[in-house]
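Board notes, transcribed. Complex of a protein with magnesium ion.
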Amino acid sequence: MIDIKNLNKGYMLGEEYLPILKNINFHVDEGEFVAILGPSGSGKTTFMNVIGCMDISDSGEYYLDGLSIHEMPEEQLTEIRNKEIGFIFQNYQLISTYTVLQNIIMPLLMRGMDHRSAEEQCMETIKLLGIDHRLDHKPSELSGGQKQRVSIARAMAGNPAILLADEPTGALDTNSGKEVLKLFQELNAMGHTIVMITHDLKVAQSAKRICKIVDGRLSEYSVR
Ligand SMILES: Nc1ncnc2c1ncn2[C@@H]1O[C@H](COP(=O)(O)OP(=O)(O)OP(=O)(O)O)[C@@H](O)[C@H]1O
Ligand SMILES: [Mg+2]
């Protein structure tokens, strides 16, 4: 599903090239739940942006479902971002002037689906996530855990191949965080592929497999 080989990415700081991701090899099969564990500044978000096709690496190969991302024109990349990847962020990134329902179905409306079909398509997820009684609320009227569940519902709206979460429990209290992680495990048990980025080993341990990233280098994590 995800196949990344010898990937490098850095940033230009003035005249100087600052390497961030260093020769990364990363493979994810369909149905996996993988955590990427690393300290602040290790390159996690940079890597997530590359995996999510929001940013392109400087060198290396990236195949998503067999398609070479590096050779893809911007238009097709936009489509892949919209259809294949569901993003979940630490700070939810909900639109404050929209209702919960409007936030959730927005990715489908952007694809040209009509309101009623979009709502129908999302209803099962909405019920699964237990937010069906909050659909007319604005994000500001929800708890952190509820906001994160709305953002998960939005990420899942288009039935993406991969759910990509960057510190999804970072802004939550311990209990809401645990609920979100349990939800990820349930979604994974239903067959959803999840890649979750975190600096917290306890959070990473909810996943089936852990990779660690230290100073831009990725490796398998093992307790020993
Ligand atoms: N646009 C940019 N230009 C230059 N340097 C950047 C840019 N974005 C990130 N960096 C640098 O890349 C490194 C990795 O940043 P990144 O955001 O990927 O880390 P992170 O692991 O997500 O950290 P955190 O846990 O704090 O979110 C940092 O040293 C950061 O300063
Ligand atoms: Mg980050």
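The mean pLDDT is 93. DSSP finds seven helices and ten strands in the chain.
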